Hints:
Elements: H1 2-17, H2 31-51, H3 60-67, H4 85-94, H5 100-120, H6 128-139, H7 142-147, H8 154-173, H9 178-194, H10 196-209, H11 216-240, H12 244-254, H13 264-270, H14 287-309, H15 313-332, H16 343-361, H17 370-414, E1 422-425, H18 428-435, E2 438-440, H19 451-458, E3 463-468, E4 482-485, E5 488-492
Amino acid sequence: MADGADAILVRMRRRDRTPAPGTTPGPRGGGRGGRALAALAAVFTLAQLALVRPVLGLGWDEIVYVSQVTSHTPAAFFSAPRSRGVSLLAAPVASWSSSVPLLRVYLAVLSGLALFLALRAWRGLFPTRVLVTGGALFASLWMTLFYGPQAMPNYWVAIGALISVGCCLRARQERSTRASLWGAAAGGLLMALMRPGDAVWVALPLLALALPRRHRRLLLALLAGLAAGALPWVIEAWTSHGGLAQRLSDASRIQGGLGWQFAVDDQLRSLGGRALCRPCTGSVPHPVVTVWWFLLPVLAGLALVLAARARRLERTLLPLACAATAAVPYLFMIGYAAPRFLQPAYALVAIPVADALWHLARKPGGTWRPVAAALVALGLAGHLAVQLAVLQGAVARNTESRRDWDRTAAALHRLGVRPPCLLTGHEAIPIGYYTGCSSGATSGHNENTTVPEILHTADRLPVAHLAPAGGTPAGYARTWPVHRVSDLDVRVAPRP
Length: 496
């Protein structure tokens, strides 16, 4: 009897390990697949350090986020749309060191590790070669390489989206195992901590998928992760912005008013290496730069057709649906563009597109289609070359602009504007950070002070007002002595 019971238990354990029909069994260890993903992450990290340069100074938005946790410079004004997630991400280094190269290396390594973990969440859903190719497609985009080592939120929303979608698919196939539920919650938390609004748009298809009663645990895990990530933003809305409704209203106003606005052409104009396209004027880049953007929906449609034929539609349709909802607000609801806004959509599209490319290059039996494989390889090589060329131009432009801020800061020091001090006017936030001063504005999106407060500060500390050369200064600074610094008119308040 004991031997018979043992045999039954063995058979039951084997049955539990058998994958459900239509699914691919997940890996039990690292294996070659894990090593391939780790190699991709390592190449991505090294490429960031080699191509973006750790000495690249902090940009405007980075300054706002990083200054919240530094001790060597005053905190810049933190406007309503922003969330504290990036500041928390940078805090382990920025809280004790002012070294920008150290921060860049830390973020590059962290972004590589995050890509590895995000792609691992998809193992068993697609072959490893598809995951590696999809990860490489996303990682080789110029905006991914450019923003990977920067203290900016969009890449991390993309990582959270990959983790959440992958874990949700695994939870449905594996009947909501604990690991997949925790992964879905963690991905939602990361997205909401970085950008709560983006997290909601990405999660809409996931929440709809989890509504059936048999997936109630998945729905609760997703909602818990999103709520935990958004909680600091909501609390801050009540403590610093007059309530949640007021903060949402302020955020909409700062972004130009959320509503129906066609920004597809703006996104196209920004693909040539523009960090921010506001207002978005000028011509669309050469077709060789934008052709991949038009091919994405074509390849996504092909991936859907192939998935439907293979009866595995869900794992292809879900990431494409989340990519579409993630892109909606940035294509149809704001009046300006930045390439980084669509990073979550690009990350989610990359895996189904990679699956379609492999089906184009190889027959179902595994043999190559020589002509198709050669065309795919040639197209990918050309795409990579274009992305690297655009990246080089973007890095050069941003490096020069940040050097200008540094030179202006040095000139201000020579004029006696040294910490503790206050800057107002044109580009006061970035130049203030480089100078070591706090920044103030009496109007606009970054309004945080009044004219009497500025004049009162000028009685105690060095205060300077910045305006474009030949431009009209603020009324309170018109009588201050003016100095020409590069393309700026710097007016320094006379000391009593």
